[in-house]
Amino acid sequence: MTELAIELRNVTVTYQTPKGEIPALEDIQLKVTPGEFVALVGPSGCGKSTILSLIAGLFEPTYGEVFVKGEQSGRHQCRIGYMLQQDFLLPWRTVLDNANLGLELQKDRGKETLVEDLLKTYGLEKFLHHHPTELSGGMRQRVALVRTLAVDPDIFLLDEPFSALDYQTRTTIQEEVWQALKSRRKTTVLVTHDVGEAVAMSDRVIVLTSRPAKVKRDLTIEFGKEHPGPWQARKSKGFVDYVDLIWDELREYVDRETPAGKGET
């Protein structure tokens, strides 16, 4: 039996506030196998990012257990990479220095050549000594990707890392990130509001209900023997059917939030 990369067992999270308890997650069951790419979609504020925080070991659930590679979250030895909507590049550091930051924090000197090679791979060889303010949004996210890849994490957590980018840049970065993670067989959990993005990038899509979130649907995404990558997936037979199926699962929650039943989840 293959050891799971991530497992949430009967996870419930309740936040304590001055106004009382706020239920965020209820009895979440989730299993992710090594090398799998899983997306979480659901209504706004349902607790998708809370699940990432639990996996990262930032806090413990109110009830239930979270395991990473068979060890309780927060007590394991594996490395976890976290990419957010904001790139969090330090404005006073150059591209090269920002990309080396994770290695510096881990006192892992000696991979500077690897970092430079990665920056060249993603078209940043001419910008090594530029500062973040001199870069486009897509270039900044590429630097953030290199910074995370350099420390060689076992698990990647992606919290809407493409949402601030324009459509053309977003589709390009999606492809680059997917290729980087799949070629390295990294276990990945993506939180996104973009249903098309979830279908195009993932092996499975987990649909969550409104808060307190429960798993409403666990949908395997298949485009043939091998995933063709996000760009080709969008052109594949069945892509629109998957998107429509997930939207049908989410529609009742969107209707509650917007009178016309339109808008993002």
UniProtKB/TrEMBL annotation:
Gene Ontology MF annotations: ATP binding; ATP hydrolysis activity
InterPro entries: AAA+_ATPase (IPR003593), ABC_transporter-like_ATP-bd (IPR003439), ABC_transporter-like_CS (IPR017871), ABC_transporter_ATP-bind (IPR050166), P-loop_NTPase (IPR027417)
Keyword ATP-binding on entry: yes
PROSITE patterns registered for this protein in UniProt: ABC_TRANSPORTER_1, ABC_TRANSPORTER_2
Ranges for domain ABC transporter: 6-235
SMART domains xref list: AAA
Keywords: ATP-binding, Nucleotide-binding, Transport
Protein's name according to its UniProt entry: ATP-binding cassette domain-containing protein
Organism: Heliobacterium mobile (Heliobacillus mobilis)
